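Entry for adenosine monophosphate complex. Fields follow.
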Amino acid sequence: MAEPHNENLFAALRAGFPADLDRAAIETETGLVYTWRDLERGSAMIANLLASLEIPAGSRIAAHTDKSVEALLLYLATLRAGFVYLPLNTAYQQAELDYFIGNAEPAVVVCSPRTFPWLSKLAFQRGVKHVFTLGDDRSGTLLERASHFPDTHAIAPKRADELAAILYTSGTTGRSKGAMLSHGNLASNARTLKDYWDWQPGDVLIHALPIFHVHGLFVASHGALLNGSTMLWLSKFEPKWVIERLPRATVFMGVPTLYVRLLQEPGLTRAACAGMRLFISGSAPLLIETFRDWQQRTGHTILERYGMSETVMLTSNPCKPQDGDRLGGTVGRALPGVGVRVVDDADRAVPVGEIGNVQVKGPNVFGGYWRMPEKTAEEFTPDGWFKTGDVGRFDANGYLTIVGRSKDLIISGGYNVYPAEIEGYLNEMPGVGESAVIGVPHPDFGEAVIAVVVRRAEAHPEEAALVAALKGRIANYKVPKRVFVVDELPRNQMGKVQKNLLRAEHAKLFGA
Ligand code: MLC
Ligand code: AMP
């Protein structure tokens, strides 16, 4: 009998490796070169280590590690061994990590040697059996232990609907939700993007994004791996490093802040970009000024696309000329095979040009939130459309423009911040009666987080003390850039805080 087809995402990515495994797969900024064979062997060794732990099927492998090629190998190893990958932003602090580890109950935590002293304690207290370390210089117990295992490994058989990864997205009520993505969700989206973005045999990707969120981990890495393309790998985003690499590259992906910062570099010229094929932006709205400035400076038209942790990529501006023009200010059309509709509050489609709620469907859309069936049910319509929480409108040619969000979400430099979470921390602080956290325009981050707090009678909470109390507890990018102490918040007749008035009052705070 024929072997059943293995729908493990790693099998799909592995099939994209070039025939000559001795070619360069990844080059780092320190000059290290990893061949495709290195990726194959390294991920096999780590997969064998994970398999040897005799942890149950479906175990979560949590990674709170600096960006490195080995951290990518850990992801690939988790897939190939058939476990579930749980990436965690390195900016997360104790309060956030305690929640994620408590909620996801991983069998394995991999962390940096730097955070091991407190993170291992937290993990062991939460019942985690195995904690390994992985430094950004190949140090740590993960690789030490893996080095004793064979460098071949048979890819674990998986069905398309089996879980591959859990990505935590901040919750509207303050508690984060784990979006459960299957092998099929990720593989279908990767294949669709390979075709729609017209990946070419000689493409070379500059990989400058973190690998703990959808953009850097899935969209960028999967794209290059599936196409057998070399990645010029940067451990962090440094504009000069990107510009130095442009002449050798063909594809770049970034959040809008990366484009804003690159435009500040005199080295960003037409000549430097002459060999580039594609610049892609997403994760947050790209300002039309940035889109136009980029066109003028480089001669290239940025392709803007739209997606979410729960759905991977949803819409994209065209790549191939025959698919149409790239329109600034829009996020393009629904990707092939993906359903996107704009509806009113009764889930009825609104006419072209009218604004409504964006809902989506397709093989890329996640199965639900980890251990939150009620929350999952709330976020889907009875006929199976996922409510994105984004608000948009279609034009007559099917291009979608995102005009706002019905969810109370701030996107700062491509990172999501839910006001309710920050308000929760502020409200607990001495002298604070209540608070309102809002996003205001910021020239670098797009939006910046600020807070307006109401002092309790006789109390005098101070901005610096409130900021200091938040730092160290939660990720720095969530900490308000400014805190204003007031006597009361503006409210409407229903008693609801009028955040729109606060946003208007502080709109020019950062001169944007
Ligand atoms: C850093 N800081 C931020 C910030 N990033 N503040 C607000 N918003 C941000 N995004 C703060 C730090 O806390 C620190 O504050 C100071 O800035 C300097 O920190 P840094 O680490 O040196 O910053 P830098 O390296 O310059 O980082 C900026 C950045 C980074 C833009 C490179 O934020 C980034 O990589 N963003 C990309 C996020 C991403 O990949 N998103 C994709 C999500 S997936 P202090 O107080 O300590 O000085 C998704 C789905 C989809 O949304 O569609 O793709
Ligand atoms: P995340 O939860 O980090 O996956 O963020 C997903 C959210 O980012 C979406 O729901 C949108 O609000 C936003 N987003 C992603 N891409 C774009 C884009 N190109 N334009 C506007 N918003 C975007």
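NOTE: The pocket of adenosine monophosphate (ligand 2) is lined by residues 169, 214, 282-285, 304, 306-309, 331, 388-390, 402, 405, 411, 416 (CB under 6 Å).
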